[in-house]
Design brief:
By secondary structure, the protein is of the alpha/beta class. The protein is about 45% helix and about 10% strand. It has a four-stranded parallel sheet.
Length: about 425
């Protein structure tokens, strides 16, 4: 598993390689050279990475460098918090705010059980941001929500209802580029609406290619059973979310649509061959990476072709494939660590972090997980270098989110625009 950003590592090596040795001694047939007037060897050139250059996943190289400098000064407890997105009960905004402040969490995930109405949601996101700032962090908190459309919409009654993501694949199948534009517009509209409520992340789009009736978990959440259509839908959605200044999370890598068991309850075994995975399940994730996906969610699947016997969220070979073979450089976040498939493993947070996860989503007990990760960093069970790599990616991505959000204003009529985009996608998708 690689610990350093691959592009930066190559750039640094290239910049430091310079000819610093002296001239060879002259041969008998050569006249001696004039004595040098130099007082010493030429100094090595400094690395020349342009801080304004954008990474493949959003932040600039300067933002990534700044993030690295910031997390290098973190205590083990602060580092541990910066790689955890917490869960909480109830609708009192003070509860998640206290958790973020006291445990130094990157942020929280808001679920339907945390939602009363629009005013209460806005009060919650504001309280979390204030707590995050009080803790000394001048970038936004990770405040995420599962708002895919269709059956998985945790802001029902608060935000605009969009059709299930299956409509995206159907729209593209029927209307081609017009359908792709409708998908991008829908993602941008919902992204802006979520920002108006104070969210910085959305756990969408779904990139799983469903196998149909034998798929008990994804179903209409999938854009299509056709890898090509699914790829186009995912890329279009990522573009829309990026345009809105909202962090999207393409999920569930390496593909849950072919699993015949539900990872909320047990660990599904995916016996698909590598050739089949590459031809079907992995295609939409490739498209997401090419479109600039800032974050990818790791599924809890036993993928025999990649690393059998472990949930993919805790399997180093799966993270290595995502980064080395697909070229993903952004934030890798686990699926919820409270799901049955993750709970089948002891200390899933530690295993996921060491395997390559950058964010640990919704552990059952955030305080206990924070304590375990803090101790693991202190003891070296989780190398500090690994923890800093993970935290710096998260911080850099939040700096990107803040910058783009500052550039892209939320319109006054954001709800009307979201409703219009949802209606258009619905019309094309059915």
């Amino acid at each position: 598993m690689r610990l350093l950003h691959p592009v930066l590592a190559l750039l640094t090596v290239a910049a430091l390689v310079a000819g610093c040795g002296g001239d060879p001694a002259p041969s008998d047939s050569e006249a001696p050279s004039a004595p040098s007037t130099s007082s010493g060897p030429e100094p090595a050139e400094e690395p020349t990475t342009d801080p304004d250059t954008s990474t493949s996943w959003g932040p600039t190289e300067g933002e990534l460098d700044r993030a690295r400098e910031v997390v290098a000064g973190f205590s083990p407890a602060e580092l541990a918090g910066q790689v955890i997105v917490g869960r909480y009960d109830g609708t009192d905004p003070a509860v998640p705010a206290a958790m973020v402040r006291d445990l130094h969490l990157a942020g929280v995930c808001v679920t339907s059980g945390n939602v009363a109405d629009a005013a209460q949601v806005a009060a919650t996101t504001q309280a979390v941001e204030e707590a995050h700032a009080i803790d000394g962090r001048d970038w936004p908190a990770v405040i995420g929500v599962d708002e895919e459309g269709g059956t998985v919409s945790h802001l029902r009654g608060v935000a605009t209802e969009f059709p299930a993501f299956q409509a995206a694949g159907t729209a593209i199948a029927g209307a081609g580029r017009v359908g792709e534009r409708a998908v991008t517009q829908a993602a941008r509209a919902t992204g802006l609406e979520l920002r108006s409520l104070g969210f910085t992340w959305v756990f969408a789009p779904v990139a799983d290619v469903t196998i149909g009736a034998a798929d008990p978990t994804i179903g209409s959440r999938s854009p299509s059973s056709d890898p090509g259509l699914a790829s186009r839908a995912v890329a279009a959605a990522v573009t829309g979310y990026d345009d809105a200044g909202l962090v999207s999370t393409t999920k569930h890598f390496p593909g849950h649509g072919g699993a015949t068991a539900d990872s909320h309850e047990t660990l599904p075994v995916l016996g698909t061959s590598m050739k089949q995975l590459e031809a079907r399940d992995l295609k939409p994730f490739e498209a997401a990476v090419e479109a600039g996906a800032p974050s990818i969610m790791m599924a809890h699947l036993d993928v025999e072709a990649l690393q059998p016997g472990l949930p993919s969220s805790q399997a180093p070979d799966v993270y290595d494939y995502l980064r080395d073979d697909l070229g993903f450089e952004g934030v890798a976040i686990t699926d919820s660590l409270g799901m049955g498939a993750a709970l089948s493993e002891t200390f899933p947070a530690i295993k996921a972090l060491n395997a390559g996860a950058d964010l640990l989503l919704m552990p059952v007990d955030p305080a206990q997980t924070h304590l375990l990760v803090t101790r693991a960093i202190q003891s070296g069970e989780v190398p500090r270098e690994r923890a800093e790599e993970a935290a710096s990616r998260v911080v850099a991505l939040q700096m990107w989110q803040q910058r783009v959000a500052d550039e892209v204003a939320v319109p006054q009529d954001v709800t009307a625009r979201a409703q219009a985009a949802a209606a258009r996608l619905t019309a094309l998708g059915y």
